[in-house]
Amino acid sequence: MTLRVHLRPDAQFHDGTAVSAPAVIKILKQKIAKPQAIGFEAVSSIDTADDGSLLFHLSRPDGFLTSTLATTLITDDDKPDVGTGPFRLVAEKGNLAAVRNASYYRGAPDIERVEVNPYPTARATWVRLLRGDIDMALEINKDSVEFLENTKFKPISSIQPFYIPLVFSLRNPILARLEVRRAISDAIDRDEIKSKGMRDHGQVADDPVWPFHWAHNAAGRRHTPDPLGARERLDAA
Q1: Structural domains in the chain plus CATH codes
Q2: Which of 43, 48, 110, 214 could be 21's S-S partner, Cβ–Cβ 3.0 to 4.6 Å?
Q3: Is pLDDT above 80 for 29?
Q4: Cα dihedral sign for 162, 199, 154, 125?
């Protein structure tokens, strides 16, 4: 019913102030008080321990609180541009810019400056990339990725936290039968869809839980297509 969180003693905000327990508690209370706050429902109070750590007192056990804290930005509403990350925002007109945080607790980044430039179309982004005006472009479609493989550019891919579901309508009298839905599921080769339909730019979702989430069960049963068994199941139905 109590979660203890230790703060790094060498972490600092971008304005040079220490990431202390009182400062973090103030920020977390700001986040919790907002109507759109999600994930803190079980937190009844937050205190500071004698060793400077945070104590979260819960009204019920909540195994997802750690994930909520991991995705919560520790930024004061009074100073929204002051964080703790490797880059700090700088005031500029138009584009978003950030410079290297030399006091970052994990070490100063090798990149000195980052600028984010918005473009109205993907074509405009490509033109600037080919001219060498920008160093990186985001959200490249799969057709363009194959084109890049034979150029001087280096595509970098990452798995995104969403999946495309195929849902059966139970209003259909045939699909309403469990054995029919199981047969259709057994007949589908998910790996073939990934390789041919998505050109291997994806991953089979064996579980509704995000595969890199701590609650994902990597040892769970993986789906194996069985077209012959599916035909027999349909015939029996």
Answers
A1: 2-70 (3.90.76.10), 87-141 (no CATH), 178-236 (no CATH)
A2: 48
A3: yes
A4: negative
